[in-house]
Amino acid sequence: MDYQAVLEEVAAHARPYVGQGQVADYIPALERVSADRFGIAVADIHGAVYGVGDWEVPFSVQSISKAFSLALVMAQSHGSQGGDGNHGAPGGNRAPGGPGTDDIWKRVGREPSGTPFNSLVQLEAENGIPRNPFINAGALVVTDRLQTLTGDASTSMLHFLREESGNPDLAFDQAVADSEAEHGDRNAALAHFMASFGNLENPVPSVIQHYFWQCSIEMSCRDLAVAGGFLARHGLRADGSRLLDAREAKRINAVMLTCGTYDAAGEFAYRVGLPAKSGVGGGIIAVIPGRCTLCVWSPGLDARGNSVAGAAALDHFTTLTGWSVF
User: Fold this and answer.
1) pLDDT for residue 308 is more than 90
2) Cα-flanking dihedrals φ and ψ of residue 36, to 5°?
3) Which residues does residue 60 pair with via DSSP β-bridges, in sequence order?
4) Mean of the per-residue pLDDT values of the chain
5) Between β-strands 276-278 and 217-219, what pairing exists: parallel, antiparallel or unpaired?
6) Cβ contact 143:70 at 8 Å
7) For residue 31, which of 59, 102, 181, 205 sits 20 to 30 Å off, Cα-Cα?
8) What's the maximum distance between 2 C-alpha atoms anywhere in the chain?
9) How far is Cα 196 from Cα 199, in angstroms, rounded to an integer?
10) pLDDT tens digits for range 224-248
11) What pLDDT score does 99 carry?
């Protein structure tokens, strides 16, 4: 596969869609990003990386971080490494399906929500159990669990992403984190509501703070494509150690396919046919198990919060290559 040639054709196809949609305006720090940016990168399972456009420009990962926090919780739950806040996840080999693997699934479901990512509607009807880990309520539960396991959820994620991406300069964006905190009443309501059902282990202010910091991490398409490679390598990290067993990696990919693009997951699966996680910063990370990981970025969002040009690019990539999970 001539990845570079494919990406250049994909970018040309996506160009008419760049600038369409609406940049996220409910987080003022994101509203200032130009809708005319576009980048796409692919990292194969052996570590080779290719990209076009603004593929090395950092942007706010936002909800893409939810896929990594879920992976870290599933990895840390095995108890093979203590959580001192200085390591992202356990390394080395371990028995598949160890103790604690499924603990998180007692507190969050695995079904599409069918409602907006910040909706409170289902929580009351379902006794404070979020429908899946990729809506905001579910991600707050996952962050809460990661905080319990590591003692510092956001820093643990940052260290992990630095290691997997090979970029030691990755950092939080203070302005974005502050902006989210200033306009985070809905997320606070979600967290307090779940706490009233006993579905949070840590104080609500702490959980919300770590959640905002995770979402504020800045990464490029290159960084995210490389960092997400363990999902294409069936759970193997960049250094060859095992983060997840193959069954766990399969399950994260499955939930990404059915729930990773908010309440447009069915349409996205129909168009693109890949496990994916989007963020309102305009990024989408997508996985082709056994082959590669892609990341595309363009800040203009559709009504569901997914990048318009990004979805068009991934649609064309799978059509052009014939690579999908179907």
Assistant:
1) yes
2) -90, 5
3) 218
4) 91
5) unpaired
6) no
7) 205
8) 53
9) 7
10) 999 999 999 999 999 999 999 999 9
11) 41
Q: Is 262 annotated as belonging to a binding site?
A: yes
**Taking the domain 3-59+221-226+258-321, which CATH number applies?**
3.40.710.10
Which residue carries 């509607």 as its tokens?
Answer: 121
What CA–CA distance (Å, rounded) separates 40 from 162? Answer: 20
**Is residue 136 part of an annotated ligand binding site?**
yes
Range 110-127 burial, b when 16+ CB lie within 10 A, else e: eebbeebbbbeebbeeee
Please report how the helices 174-182 and 204-216 are oriented relative to each other, as an axis angle in degrees rounded to 10: 140
Q: How far apart are CA 234 and CA 31, in angstroms?
A: 36
- CA pair distance 64, 282, nearest whole angstrom: 10
Q: Is pTM beyond 0.85 here? A: yes
pLDDT tens across 13-64, in order? 999 999 999 999 888 889 999 999 999 999 999 999 999 999 999 999 999 9
Q: In what order do the strands lie in the sheet with 171-172?
A: 59-60, 217-219, 171-172
Superfamily designation of domain 63-219: DD-peptidase/beta-lactamase superfamily (3.40.710.10)
pLDDT at 95: 33
> What does the block give as tokens for 104?
């998180």
Q: Say whether 63-219 and 3-59+221-226+258-321 share the same fold.
A: yes
Rounded Cα–Cα distance for residues 312 and 317 (Å): 9
In which band, very low, low, confident or very high, does the pLDDT at 117 lie, cut at 50, 70 and 90?
low
pLDDT digits (tens, 9 = 90+) for 311-323: 999 999 999 999 9
- Was 3 annotated as part of a binding site? no
Tell me if 26 is assigned to a ligand binding site. Answer: no
Which is it for the CA torsion 154, 227, 190, 200, positive or negative?
negative
Distance CA 14, CA 33 (A): 19
Domain range summary for the chain, segments of one domain joined by +: 3-59+221-226+258-321, 63-219
Secondary structure letter of residue 293 according to DSSP: E
Here the tokens at position 214 are 């995770």
63 is in an annotated binding site: yes
* Cα–Cα distance measured from residue 163 to residue 168, given in angstroms and rounded to the nearest whole number: 7
Q: What are 40's strand-pairing partners?
A: 52, 296
